[in-house]
Amino acid sequence: MESILAATKDAGISTIEEAIAFTLGYKSAMASSSPSSQIPSKAQSGTVVLVTGGTGLVGKAVQEVIEAEARADEKWVFVGSKDADLRNFDATHALFARVRPTHVIHLAAFVGGLFRNLKYKTEFFRYNVQMNDAVMQCCKEFNVKKLVSCLSTCIFPDKTTYPINETMLHNGAPHTSNEGYAHAKRMIDVMNRMYNAQYGCKFTSVIPTNIYGKHDNFSIQDGHVIPGLIHKCYKAKQSGGDFTVWGTGKPMRQFIYSLDLARLMVWVMRKYDDPDPIILSVGEKEEVSIADVAGHIAKAMSFSRAVKKDTTKSDGQFKKTADNSKLMKLYPDFKFTSIADGLKETVQWFEKNYDAARK
Ligand code: NAP
Ligand code: GDP
Questions:
Q1: Which of 73, 193, 225, 244 could form a disulfide with 308 if both were Cys (CB 3.0 to 4.6 A apart)?
Q2: Which residue ranges form the domains of the chain, and what is each CATH number?
Q3: Residue 31's pLDDT band (boundaries 50, 70, 90)?
Q4: What pLDDT is stored for residue 42 in this prediction?
Q5: What is the CA(219)–ligand 1 centre distance, in A?
Q6: Residue 32 pLDDT exceeds 60
Q7: Ligand 1 centroid vs 20 CA: distance in angstroms?
């Protein structure tokens, strides 16, 4: 008790609410939720876009797109976990104080494929809630003009009708395999509406389908299906062993190439002003089975032996077919990269960057 009293005194706490918040570990959050006039002001000219998760699959793709079409009136800042652990409110606040963003694309997340989701449900929930809470609150405190966060089609209800559209996000429980991730991500949409209603914040979100491309996490145990299969095929070629798909190969997925998604994210940042989410996906006709994807990968890697299946492994959600008509209405000219071309580029990148690639 004495040490708590001494610590609260040291921390400059004078009310009972502050003392309770301090004891629960919220002192710094409370202190920094005071009016933004307390934040040292710094003249801000032009647009400063902070991209969290800037070192990941999507972040690197946004960087490539922005480098190709830089605008003089926009400064883009890409950060990873080494710049700030966004699970920590104070570290997030310090990052915002350094960068002074006018706009934020929030990509950072505790991410992984089906098998990582099955193993770490608690961390998927906690870490993502912590990061999203810190980023949103800082966007509010630093008067960020627009925040775009990232959901996923895998967070939709498991038992649903198809195709899924943006209005169906909360209509039932997600698939149990990724319930930690799904519930944390769904709360972004809830919080967007609450910050908008209470504080007038312009927060929105995008809902991509499965993403793949250069700079992905090619870990066989933790990664998503495409990087996992590319790595397994690479190893099978090197060792002369089997190339094995986990599960039956029957589940269906829509895959978006990371550079296509990056172009769409930049478009959302500049042009999409609705607080309601928007699905960023290829059309329903582009949905493919996991077995088909394995076939494309084998072809792109010139792997000519039979592809095996391990049906003792989970299939996860059978499908999550998404309707991209909202996007196509707003951006009718957008052209998606075919899965064959996107996989060819990704495989080439992985083979060339094998030593340095995340795996
Ligand atoms: P990724 O390649 O795994 O990258 C994750 C990013 O988050 C990295 O930059 C990482 O930084 C950062 N990060 C992780 N923990 C952090 C922490 N505690 N503090 C600060 N930064 C942290 O993921 P991605 O595939 O690009 O995913 C981007 C967004 O798309 C995520 O919001 C994800 O939920 C969403 N999404 C992904 C998919 C998919 O198929 N990949 C599908 C739908 C939606 P370090 O590099 O320093 O670790
Ligand atoms: P999801 O789309 O959110 O379920 O996540 P993933 O990208 O991990 O894809 C999972 C689907 O791919 C399931 O049907 C798995 O059975 C299948 N799959 C087949 N081989 C692999 C693999 O090597 N890694 C992963 N992550 N999934 C695989």
A1: 244
A2: 34-212+256-286+320-339 (3.40.50.720)
A3: very low
A4: 53
A5: 14
A6: no
A7: 33
The predicted structure's pLDDT at residue 58: 98
Lowest mean pLDDT among 8-17, 154-163, 216-225, 243-252: 8-17
| pLDDT value, residue 7 | 44
Residue nearest to atom 2 of ligand 1 (CA): 56
Q: Starting from the edge strand earliest in sequence, which strands make up the sheet with 146-150, in order? A: 74-79, 47-52, 103-106, 146-150, 203-208, 278-280
> Residue for token digits 């922005």?
66
Can you give the pTM of this predicted structure? 0.89
> Looking at residue 25, what is its pLDDT?
41
The ligand minimizing its distance to the Cα of 297 is 2
- Quick: pLDDT tens for 113-137: 999 999 999 999 999 999 999 999 9
Q: Contact at 8 Å (CB) between 288 and 339? A: yes
Q: How far is the CA of 111 from the centre of ligand 1 (A)?
A: 5
Residue 234 among the catalytic residues: no
**pLDDT score of 286:** 96
Phi and psi at 208, nearest 5°, equal: -80, 155
3-state helix, strand, coil in the chain (%, to 5): 45, 15, 40
Q: What is the mean pLDDT of the chain?
A: 90
Q: Is the CB of 174 under 6 A from ligand 2?
A: no
Given the residues 120, 127, 181, 234, the one annotated as active site: 181
Amino acid, res. 186: R
Neighbour count for residue 196 (Cβ, 10 Å): 14
Residue 249: pLDDT band by 50, 70, 90 thresholds? very high
Beta bridge partners of 211: 256
What are the b/e assignments for 294-323, b being 16+ CB within 10 Å? bbbbbebbebeeebebeeeeeebbebbbbb
Strands (E), the chain: 47-52, 74-79, 103-106, 146-150, 203-208, 210-212, 243-246, 252-253, 255-257, 278-280, 288-289, 307-310
Contact predicate 32/141, CB 8 Å = yes
Token representation of residue 117: 């989701």
Atom of ligand 2 at shortest range from CA of 232: 23
